[in-house]
């Protein structure tokens, strides 16, 4: 049985993705079982191969955060690592909430990236040191806020837009038509929204939306 780490690499920039894949292959400790350029393709490839680790770009089409939430829900044994240029606290907090065990900035060196991926495959977690202190401070501040305020802040602009339309009584298909998105994409967003708001269904989400003033 191979001791090599099976990994899916998802990033919408082919040149960057190719560089990461080449680095992992040259290291010799990884099997790159699939590549993807969108969130939807990333979820599909993870479901097909069930790798040890999925390395996801935050800002790829469809949102790496949406992909992370879907993978975390459907395939919890897969170690999620976000590789991104974003140092925004909200992106990091959203990634951790989605189940990511690693959050790495794209300026990271090859050896450091390999160390992070190996650690996550072994069950550990990693956040870039430059972000760790800020995240702890942000989490402490958020924990002191009212629950409804926290829920509102956790929603992305797109999620808030979708929730507003759902609160008017539109179906997923109608929301998708209004926003020029596929129905299954709206379903993914709604799963994320229900989790963030800690509600059980669309009716409770609509009520929460009114409480939040959306």
Task: Note the main attributes of this structure.
11 helices; elongated; 2 domains; 214 residues; 6-stranded parallel β-sheet; Arc Repressor Mutant, subunit A
Describe the fold and architecture.
With 214 residues, this protein is of the alpha/beta class. It folds into two domains: 5-136, Rossmann fold; 147-211, Arc Repressor Mutant, subunit A (Orthogonal Bundle), CATH 1.10.10. 58% of the residues lie in helices and 14% in strands. It has eleven helices and six strands. The protein has a six-stranded parallel beta sheet with strand order 2-1-3-4-5-6, with helices on both faces. Helix 2 (39-49) runs parallel beside helix 3.
Task: Give the spatial strand order of the biggest sheet.
Answer: 2-1-3-4-5-6
Principal-axes geometry comes out as elongated
Strand content is 5-15%
Oligomer description: single chain
Largest sheet composition: 6 strands, parallel
The topology string of helices and strands comes to: EHEHEHEHEHEHHHHHH
Short recap of the structure:
About 60% of the residues lie in helices and about 15% in strands.
Topology of helices and strands:
Elements: E1 5-10, H1 14-27, E2 30-36, H2 39-49, E3 53-57, H3 64-74, E4 79-84, H4 89-98, E5 102-105, H5 110-121, E6 126-127, H6 129-143, H7 147-154, H8 157-167, H9 172-179, H10 183-197, H11 202-211
Parallel strand pairs: 1-2, 1-3, 3-4, 4-5, 5-6
Helix pairs in contact: 2-3, 3-4, 8-10, 8-11, 9-10
